[in-house]
Write a structure and sequence with these properties.
The complex is a heterodimer. In chain A, 0% of the residues lie in helices and 54% in strands. By secondary structure, chain A is mostly beta strands. The chains are: A mainly beta, B mainly beta.
């Protein structure tokens, strides 16, 4: 049963600390998305990659957020330094190619910054 | 720019009855896809149904069906014979035909009363 995995599922950290969230896309999927979900803003696209190259990161605060794909099986989202307003659920999703109908979502990482 | 609007933040339905969730979108494209995703309390995003804009026939998946009105840019979800397990947040989403960047609405919380 192929699925997107995300670690950690929950993270509590203090303001100013670095946070790294990891995502393993479904094997064979070459497009990876990072979303942030909050009550106020809903589901926002932060960045996405195709074939490990960033295609669009316009939704991501550049000064503190960074997203990478070190290899085809791992995507990372880093926040440094973290702030309380970063508290949210962060989802990773993967898709197979440009023409793929749908995205498959991971279970999300709930981040709390105190 | 593409936008997706869900004007009903919350709705309730009696078990076994039918409920319709509304979604409108704005686009200048003629070819695109529309989706409904379900997010239960577990936070997992689950694809419920999708519609290709070039198809006139409304999509159906068991108890779930859509009313796609292309000219009106409307895409509502009908859930028949509602079950307790249908209680969740429902998100409407749009993507262009040849570009798999998704745009999500703000969501509708569906409560199912026993």
């Amino acid at each position: 049963d192929a699925r997107v995995t995300q670690t950690p599922r929950h993270k509590v950290t203090e303001m100013g600390q670095e946070v790294t969230m990891r995502c393993q896309p479904i094997l064979g999927h070459n497009t990876v998305f990072w979303y942030r979900q909050t009550m106020m803003q809903g589901l926002e696209l932060l960045a996405y990659f195709r074939n490990r190259a960033p295609l669009d990161d316009s939704g991501m605060p550049k000064d503190r957020f960074s997203a990478e794909m070190p290899d085809a099986t791992l995507a990372t989202l880093k926040i440094q330094p973290s702030e309380p307003r970063d508290s949210a659920v962060y989802f990773c999703a993967s898709a197979q190619g440009t023409w793929s109908y749908e995205q498959y979502f991971g279970p999300g990482t709930r981040l709390t910054v105190t | 720019a593409q936008t997706v609007t869900q004007s009903q933040p919350e709705m309730s339905v009696q078990e076994a009855e039918t409920v319709t969730l509304s979604c409108t979108y704005d686009t200048s494209e003629s070819d695109y896809y529309l989706f409904w995703y379900k997010q239960p309390p577990s936070r997992q995003m689950i694809l419920v149904i999708r519609q290709e804009a070039y198809k006139q026939q409304n999509a159906t998946e068991n108890r779930f069906s859509v009313n796609f009105q292309k000219a009106a840019k409307s895409f509502s979800l009908k859930i028949s014979d509602s079950q307790l397990g249908d209680a969740a947040m429902y998100f409407c989403a749009y993507r262009r035909y040849n570009f798999n960047k998704f745009y999500f609405g703000s969501g509708t919380k569906l409560n199912v009363k026993p």
